[in-house]
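Researcher: We're reviewing a set of sequences before deciding which ones to prioritize for further study. For each one, I'd like a predicted 3D structure that I can look through quickly. This is Membrane associated serine protease, rhomboid family. If possible, include the structure in token form so it fits the rest of the review sheet.
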Amino acid sequence: MNTIFDDFKNAFRRGDNGVVQLILINLIVYLVINFLLVISAISNNGNALSQFLLMNLALPAPVLSFLVKPWTLITYFFTHEGFWHILWNMLFLYWFGNLVKEYLGNRRFVNVYILGGISGGVLYLLMYNLVPYFVNNQPYLGLIGASGAVYAVVVAAATLIPNYTFNLLLIGPVRIVYIAAFYVVASFFGLAGGNAGGNLAHLGGAVIGFLFIRQLHRGTDLGRPITYLADKFNGLFQRKPKLRVTHNGKPTTRTRRATGTSGKPDQQEIDAILDKISHSGYESLTKEEKQKLFSASQNQRE
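Model: Here's the predicted structure for Membrane associated serine protease, rhomboid family, in token form for your review sheet.
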């Protein structure tokens, strides 16, 4: 048992392990919800415990309900109830997330996921409060699932490296731009179906995934606010390094923030590399170009 907990701790200690960390968070929430579902069932409480948790994690459609529970704009895209729902979301997150992480770095991958989830939630709220068709068909529970965030990652990967191919069972090699396009179109057609809210989140996430890469090519990182907030949050739990200095012959201890040079490649170089990936794929990069791209993603502190 200790080995399992050690594996979990090691997964979260690594700073470049965003794909696994996000999958684990989704998995933990899923297991807690379904554990409570079992406990409720055997204690003759129906599903009261799991429903109470879901109601406080799901994004409600009525805007007044959302204003009472604003945290749900974040928690909803870490929450799943059904097995197949979380399975497919986590598989797509793993497949496409590792691509985004490899090309843009861990931080930007996590930023795409979070921005995609928020964007999907915002579109869901807007449509269910402004468009009569959706207003008249508001779901009881609200919105749950990482699909919007995952769609952002999928579309970001397809926008960045459209010619990258996956070998699909019974089909063969398919470029990821076609895979992404298929799921986006299917989500649009599904707006009139039973999972309209989920499909709205898909489309909201897809839009932010596309815009994130396009703006990155123009030198604008849409994930800057997420990175800034994450740095501030992490700074609350980090001790400032202590330096021993000598003043008038007496050693004293002072605390200051450590600084250093980032050694980042020039932004124009990175833009040129990203353009090359977009047109010819990651495999076309030289070893030096891959090193520069990796260095830029690791040193990104915006």
